[in-house]
Amino acid sequence: MAEKADKQEKSPFIAGLLSAVIPGLGQVYARQAYRGAVIFIGTMLVLAMVIWYRHPAWYIAPLGIWLWNVVDAASLAAGRKRSFLLPILLGLLAAYGIGWQVSQIDFSKASLSRAYLIVRPMFSPDFVEPRREENSIWVGVEVPCSPEPPQAYREDGSKSLAVMPDCGGVHETLIVTATGLWPNTDTNVVWRTPIGDPKMVSEDENSMLVVPSDENGNMTVVIRVPTTALVAAPDPTLPQQHRVYLYQYRSLGGIQLSYVGGEVLKGAAVTVAMALMATTLAMFVAVPISFLAAHNLMSGNPFTLGIYFIVRTILNILRSIEALIIAIIFVTIVGLGPFAGVMALAIHSVAALAKLYSEVIEGIDNGPIEAIYATGATWVQMVRFAVVPQIVPAFTSFTIYRWDINVRSATVIGLVGGGGIGFLLVELIRVNDMRGVSTVFIAIAVIVIVLDFVSAKVRERLI
Amino acid sequence: MLRVEHVSKTYPTGTQALKDVSFEVQDGEFLVVIGLSGSGKSTLLRCINRLIDPTEGKIYWNDIDITAASPSDLRLIRRHIGMVFQQFNLVKRSSVLTNVLSGRLGYVNSFTSLLNIWSEEDKQRAMKALDRVGIADKASERADALSGGQQQRVGIARALMQEPKVILADEPVASLDPVLSHTILQYLEQLNKEGITVICSLHFLDLVHRYATRVIALKDGIKVFEGLPQEIDRAKFKEIYGEEAQEVRATSVEG
Q: Measured between alpha carbons, how far is A118 from A158 in angstroms, rounded to an integer?
């Protein structure tokens, strides 16, 4: 009762006035110092946030909180507490509103047609293709013409390919004649610049020119020198040898690994091998280190305890650096390729494994150690018979688990040049081969799922 | 003969586990150490084979100063002192045979033992030890596949491998049920009759009366009683275990 009487002595007007000057001060005056402090800090935080963002609309939030704070101080002086709901809602509203604008969320930016172009090819992954046989021949053509161009005629076994005239400028007409091809077969005609860049030679220069050969294996077609043939030439007036290629394909029945499919398999193997090498390297380094990082073995005297703290600190620092970042450093040291990835994974794994191992060592049962010592065994014998049997299963289990993690990390590390399937993925994205990209996605998923399953099964047996 | 002279032990934490304890054990005795939990029984037994180093005092075994022994001498002394533990202290994931063979480590070449290679003689000795405690058929099983009583028998077999002159038994039956307690203690009694000195800490007074040839009692690290088991009357019992204590019997099965 005395408390209530005490409260009634406070003037609501003075409380409100004080809070109007400094938020929370009126509450302090009404003997609610803690509440006052919370209100002051909260108001300042919201105010700082709004001032930092400089968007006038959001000043509504600190203003509202300030008004509520004045009312709260007055009613507190009159002996009545108000709910915090309103100021909290106002603060959250400002935080989420500003957060939304800062992170530039804009769902209207999503373009379905662009997404379709990217996603559509991904539904037909490029892994296998029908088995087929290729028949091809090429001939050199000079562009533009020199006074004495070499003859545009070439024989290859029983096949021959001739272009008339022997040279031409951009957009000039050429007659292509071939003999000795497979009869009655569609033949693709492709132009290649001196740097090997393929150009389409159909009328619109946008699709493949396909011409069938006759029953004797002969074929004649009129093409134009592509308008873009000299785009990449250092000097368009300098005559250079371009090539005209003819390709024929014949089905052999059955299916075979496509080029991308083969690369994906190779990349997957490299990634798994990278993780295996890194984990094994890390294991050999981490085992001795883990003994130095085990508190129960190192707490004997101040010297070993010092070593323990130093080792632990180094491990914690190493572990806090993402393998991806270590990989970027190693790419500059040893160059692009799987070795950089292996080193990055190994260093990160040393830190992670040494910590896990040392925790295993810390958790071993001291009883067998006593018992083995009591038989008159040496320290080495004690470790062999009392410590090793206790730690080997857990060590093995953690090592397999780490390998599993490293396979996943290795795919990401490939993205920064660390080799393996991630590296392949970046290359495929660069050339916009979305079919290949989806093949890589599927391969990564399969590897991860299979390894996850295998490692879980093996570890189940060990524990 | 084992002679303990003015042994004290203070742990780094400041706990004084033993205070000036002295006694003698003649060869062939079955000495039982009693006292409440935390009275220093385990510390005392571990001081004898120096699993714990006493802070003060001397322990002589056949006039060899154990407390002053060099590490290599200590190992030679330890191999004559077998030890049996309350929690058995077997390596759970190793086979029973390996656990028993590890009792032989003090005798064998360090290098071959590290590869877990044992002589035929040692293997036969291990099988004989297991046979003595009645579990020769369990030799190839994992130690943690055995029941508590069987595990303690493995512990005894391991101690037997040392061809011990003394067996230290630290509450060997405290983790077992009453019927099994007698089985285990009867093995120790049998070994004692064959000439091995047994120093054993126990909880239950009826077991003390049944097996001990002599008793010492510890209270807060001080020796408060030394004498024959039948000398422990109600008054002595209250003195050792405190005024509140009630005597609990391990079993009534014993006739």
A: 44
